[in-house]
Design a protein that fits this description.
The complex is a heterodimer. By secondary structure, chain A is mainly α. Chain A has two domains: 24-70; 83-280, MetI-like (MetI-like fold), CATH 1.10.3720. Chain A has helices spanning 11-14, 27-55, 73-79, 85-116, 122-134, 137-150, 157-183, 186-193, 198-226, 230-236, 243-252, 256-284, and strands at 57-59, 69-70. Chain A is globular. Chain B folds into two domains: 4-223, P-loop containing nucleotide triphosphate hydrolases (Rossmann fold, 3-Layer(aba) Sandwich); 228-345, OB fold (Dihydrolipoamide Acetyltransferase, E2P) (Beta Barrel). Helices cover 23% and strands 33% of the residues of chain B. In chain B, the strands form four sheets. Chain B has a six-stranded mixed sheet with strand order 6-7-8-3-9-10, sandwiched between helices. Chains A and B meet through α8 and α9 of A and β6, α2 and α4 of B. The complex binds adenosine-5'-triphosphate (ATP) and magnesium ion. Magnesium ion binds next to α1 of chain B.
C-alpha cells in the first residue's frame, strides 16, 4: 500500500527511478473529498451545535429560533458533585482504558493465533468469539451476574471492565486477526534468523508493523466500552456510575438543557479519541481510509 | 567455518511427506545448490536447518553437534526468504543493519558496514528509502545485503535472485560467490533453474517430491544422471532400451558398446542415454563404432548449431549437431554414440513417489 502523505524524498531519491504518483489525487477527486468532508461536518456538526445551544438555554419555547433566555445553570449542575457527572466521566474513562488494556492483553495473542495459524477447532473458537455480536451482551451479563456476585466483582471497576469486554472483544479480535493475517509470519522468521529472539522480534518487527491496526482496534474497544449502558447498570448495580448512567434519566426527562450539557460531556471525549487516532494514523498508514486526511 | 550435516531428515505436514529421509553433508565453506521443481521440499529443508520448523524425524548437525534443540536466533544460520523481503517500517539502512544491531555491534561500525555492503549490491544512496519505495529487484538486493552484512556462519538463500534481470543476476551471483568464498561461509542456495545451480554451486543436490535424487558436482548431472528423470531435468531425454551382457548392450537398432570403467553397474534390461551434444552424425559407410540408424523428424537451424529431432528405434532423440549438418525431414541418417559418452540410467519414469510411504 502506498500513502500519499509521504515525506518529501531527498535529492538522492530523485536520481533514482521510483517516484510514486499513483495516489496523487486529481483536481476532481480533491473536490469530491472536500464535499464529503463538508457533508460529514454538517451531519455531525449541526446536531452538536444544537446541543451547545441547548446547553446554554434557560428558556426556549417552541416557535423561537433561539432561546429567549440564556443561562449557565446546566453547566453549573454538571460541575456539581451531586450530579455525579464528573464522577461518571472519571469512571467511564477508567473503565474504557482498563477494557482497552485487557482487550490488548487477552485479544492480541488470540487474534494472532486466529490470523496466522491453523489449528483444530479454529472455526469453533471463531464462532464463540463472534457470539456477543449475535447474542446481546445483556443475555450473557445476566448469566454472569450471579457468578460475579459470588466473586464479589459486582459494583467494582474491574467487574464492570470485565463485562464490557464481552461486547468489545469480538471487534478487537476481528480487526487484529485480519491485521495479523495480512502481515504474515515471514518477516518475523527473517528477523529470527538474523539473531533476534522472540521478544526483540516483537519489539522491533511485529509491533511497529501492527501498531496502526492496534490503534484502530483499541479505539473501537474504547468507544464500545464508553457507550455501554445496560451491562454497566447490571454489574455496577447503580453504585458504580459511568456517564451513560448519569445521562440516561435526563434523556427522558423534561430538563433539556441539562441533558444537552451532559450529552456534550459524553460525546466530546469520543470525538477527541477518534480525531486523535485518525490524525496519528493519517500520518503513516492507510488503515483508516480517509479519516486521517480530514 | 561450520559444516552442516542433515541426517535422515524428514518433515511431514498432515499426511503429506514434504521431505523424506534426506541425508547430506555440507563441508565448511562449501556452496551447495538445492535444485528441484516447485513443491519438492526445498524451502521446507532450509526452514528445518534454521530451526523455524522442527523436523518430524532426523537430525540437523552443525560441526557435528545437533542443533535441533537450539532456537533459531542462536544457530547463526541466516536465511534470505523467497518473498516478503524487507521490514516495512524500517528504511533500507535499518533493514541492512538489523542483524548487526541484534548482535550488539556499535552504531559507527554498523553504519560503516551497511554503507559498504550497499555499495557491493550496487545500491548506494538508498539508505533512507522505505521498502515500498524500492523495486522488486532492489528489495531483493537489500535483503541479500542484510544477510551478507552479518557474515553468517551458515547462509541459506531461497531463490534470492528470482526478481532480477539477466545482467543483475550475473552480477549478484558473482557477488554472492565472492563474499561466500572470501568469508568461508557455508551456503545453501535454493533454485529451480539448473543453469544457476550449475554455475554457482560446488555441489548440487537435486530433489524431486521430497527425496534427494542425486548429489554431486555440477557436471555429473550432465554426464552421469542417475535416473531418466534426473536426465530429463537436465534437458536430456535421449533414451534407448536394451539388454546388457558384459560391455555390450544389444538394442533393437544394433549393439552398443559401453565403457566398463564409466558404467560398471547394471546388467540385463538397461536404458542407455547420450547427451544431445555428444551424439555425432556420421557418413554412411564410415568405420565409426557404435553407430545407429535414425530417421530425421525435424531440423531446426539455431545459428550456432542445428537441433535435430530423430527417431532411433522406437525412441525420439534430440541431437545437437554442427550448424553445417542439414538433413531433410524423413531422411535416414547414421549417428555415432561415442563409447565414452554412453551412460546407463535407471528407469524411474513409472515410479509413483507419492504412493511411497515412509516407514
Ligand atoms: N506449512 C505447511 N503446511 C502444509 N504443507 C506445507 C507447508 N509448507 C510446505 N508444505 C508443502 O510441502 C511441500 C514442499 O513445500 P516447499 O515450500 O518446501 O516447496 P519448494 O521446493 O520450496 O517449492 P517452491 O520452489 O515452489 O518454493 C509442498 O507440497 C507444500 O505444499
Ligand atoms: Mg520454496
Amino acid at each position: 500500500m502506498t500513502v500519499d502523505t509521504k515525506e518529501p524524498a531527498g535529492p538522492a531519491a530523485e536520481s533514482q527511478e521510483y517516484v510514486d504518483v499513483t495516489e496523487r489525487p486529481t483536481v476532481t477527486a480533491k473536490w469530491v473529498r472536500r464535499l464529503a468532508v463538508a457533508s460529514i461536518a454538517v451531519a455531525v456538526g449541526l446536531p452538536m451545535l444544537s446541543l451547545v445551544v441547548w446547553s446554554f438555554a434557560f428558556r426556549w419555547n417552541f416557535p423561537n429560533l433561539l432561546p429567549s433566555e440564556w443561562g449557565t445553570q446546566a453547566w453549573a449542575y454538571v460541575a456539581d458533585d451531586s450530579s455525579r457527572v464528573v464522577e461518571g466521566l472519571w469512571n467511564s474513562t477508567k473503565v474504557a482504558v482498563l477494557v482497552t488494556l485487557l482487550a490488548i492483553i487477552v485479544g492480541l495473542p488470540a487474534s494472532r493465533a486466529l490470523g496466522q495459524h491453523e489449528f483444530k477447532g479454529k472455526s469453533a473458537v471463531e464462532w464463540v468469539l463472534m457470539m456477543p455480536i449475535i447474542v446481546p451482551a445483556l443475555v450473557a451479563t445476566m448469566g454472569i451476574h450471579q457468578i460475579f456476585i459470588r466473586l464479589r466483582l459486582t459494583e467494582t471497576l474491574f467487574g464492570v471492565a470485565l463485562v464490557h469486554l464481552i461486547p468489545a472483544i469480538p471487534y478487537f479480535v476481528l480487526v487484529m486477526a485480519s491485521v495479523f493475517a495480512n502481515y504474515g509470519t515471514a518477516l518475523e522468521e527473517t528477523a529470527r534468523t538474523l539473531g533476534a529472539n522472540k521478544f526483540r522480534v516483537f519489539r522491533y518487527v511485529t509491533f511497529p508493523a501492527i501498531s496502526s491496526g492496534l490503534l484502530v482496534a483499541s479505539m473501537f474497544t474504547f468507544l464500545i466500552s464508553w457507550g455501554q449502558y445496560v451491562t454497566t447498570l447490571l454489574i455496577g448495580g447503580g453504585t458504580f456510575v459511568t456517564l451513560p448512567l448519569v445521562l440516561f434519566p435526563f434523556l427522558s426527562g423534561a430538563n433539556h438543557a441539562t441533558a444537552a450539557a451532559i450529552s456534550l460531556v459524553f460525546v466530546a471525549p469520543a470525538i477527541i479519541v477518534l480525531v486523535f487516532t485518525s490524525r496519528q494514523l493519517g500520518r503513516e498508514s492507510s488503515v483508516m481510509g480517509g479519516f486521517g486526511r480530514i | 567455518m561450520t559444516a552442516v550435516a542433515l541426517s535422515h531428515l524428514s518433515k511431514r505436514f498432515g499426511n503429506h511427506l514434504a521431505v523424506r529421509d534426506l541425508n547430506l553433508e555440507i563441508e565448511s565453506g562449501e556452496m551447495v545448490a538445492f535444485l528441484g521443481p516447485s513443491g519438492c521440499g526445498k524451502t521446507t529443508t532450509l526452514r528445518m536447518i534454521t530451526g523455524l520448523i522442527q523436523p518430524t524425524s532426523g537430525d540437523v548437525l552443525f560441526d557435528g553437534e545437533s542443533v535441533v534443540g537450539i532456537p533459531t536466533e542462536r544457530r547463526g544460520a541466516v536465511m534470505v526468504f523467497q518473498k516478503h523481503l524487507l521490514f516495512p517500517t524500517m528504511n533500507v539502512a535499518q533493514n541492512v543493519g538489523f542483524g548487526l544491531k541484534m548482535a550488539g555491534v556499535d552504531k559507527a561500525e554498523t553504519a560503516r558496514r551497511v554503507t559498504e555492503m550497499l555499495e557491493l549490491v550496487e545500491l548506494p544512496d538508498l539508505e533512507s528509502r522505505k521498502a515500498h519505495e524500492l523495486s522488486g529487484g532492489q528489495q531483493q538486493r537489500v535483503a541479500l545485503a542484510r544477510a551478507l552484512v552479518v557474515r553468517p556462519q551458515v547462509l541459506l538463500l531461497d531463490e534470492p535472485l528470482a526478481n532480477l534481470d539477466a545482467n543483475l543476476r550475473i552480477t549478484m551471483r558473482q557477488l554472492i560467490r565472492s563474499i561466500q568464498h572470501e568469508m568461508g561461509i557455508t551456503a545453501i542456495f535454493v533454485t529451480h533453474d539448473q543453469e544457476e545451480a550449475v554455475m554457482l554451486a560446488d555441489r548440487v543436490a537435486l530433489m524431486f517430491d521430497g527425496v534427494v535424487q542425486q548429489v554431486g558436482e555440477p557436471d555429473t548431472f550432465y554426464r552421469r544422471p542417475s535416473t531418466t528423470r534426473v536426465a530429463q531435468f537436465f534437458r536430456n531425454s535421449n533414451f534407448l532400451h536394451g539388454v546388457r551382457s558384459g560391455n555390450v548392450v544389444s538394442t533393437p537398432v544394433g549393439d552398443i558398446e559401453v565403457d566398463p570403467v564409466q558404467v560398471a553397474d547394471g546388467s540385463g534390461d538397461v536404458i542407455l542415454s547420450v547427451r544431445p551434444e555428444e551424439v555425432k552424425p556420421v557418413l554412411a559407410g564410415s568405420d565409426a563404432a557404435n553407430t545407429v540408424p535414425a530417421t530425421v523428424e525435424s531440423v531446426i537451424y539455431m545459428g550456432t548449431h542445428t537441433q535435430v529431432v530423430a527417431k532411433i528405434g522406437n525412441s525420439v532423440w534430440n541431437v545437437q549437431t554442427a550448424a553445417a549438418f542439414n538433413p531433410r525431414e524423413g531422411e535416414e541418417v547414421l549417428f555415432e554414440l561415442p563409447k565414452e559418452h554412453v551412460w546407463i540410467v535407471k528407469d524411474d519414469s513409472n515410479s509413483q513417489p507419492d504412493a511411497v510411504k515412509a516407514s
